[in-house]
Amino acid sequence: MKKLVVITGASSGIGKELAITFSKEGHPVLLLARRKDLMEQLNLENCICKSVDVTKKDQVEKAILEAEEKYGKTDLLINCAGIMPLGKPDKQSYEEWNNMVDTNIKGILTGTNVVLPNMIKENKGTIINISSIAGRKTFDNHSVYCGTKFAVHAITESMRKEVADKNVRIIVISPGVVETPLLSHTTDEQIKESYNEWKKTIESGLDTQKIADCVKFVYCMPQDVCVREIVIAKTKQQD
Question: CA-CA distances (angstroms) from residue 139 to 64, 132, 147, 194, 234?
Fold first, then answer.
């Protein structure tokens, strides 16, 4: 059996695709998200599904330790959990800002805090953070979302430098528009409508499998090769 892969945000979108992809590759997988029923419906082999709040380290740690007891130490952690409630800065609620900061930033820290010490000890391991093009440039109605993704980029790059000499890889994948339920988090119907109209100009977003292919590619490189970042978007997406 191959090594353990831990995936957050595994109940839908990119996380769900990653769960299917790595399970097909023969890896035992630990799937973490709030909606346990959706993960269990995937019916994957050598799979543990846990309903957790990714911002709570104790919940994430308990799930990871249980999976590691059964399948061995985590070799790949994919931090995929995230939310995208878009809004105008003068109208969006503080609660939405707060939830974005918690989920999109703390959500990559909890699992990392659990698995990184052992990866450093064993001189191997990979952590992949799923970020966004919005972590490289700003967009209208994305102000706090962009802020959280800029943070993901900064954290990823800083950590990568600090653990590089320990042969541990920390990588960021930055997709443009992807066909996921992410926009459903937005409560402003006018913004959603405008976003969907704009998306027609690029003939829909990327299929989630394209992102899973990128993750698989960087992970399957030799451990002494770190593809630090991939930025991927539809060719017609200009920004």
Answer: 35, 12, 11, 13, 17
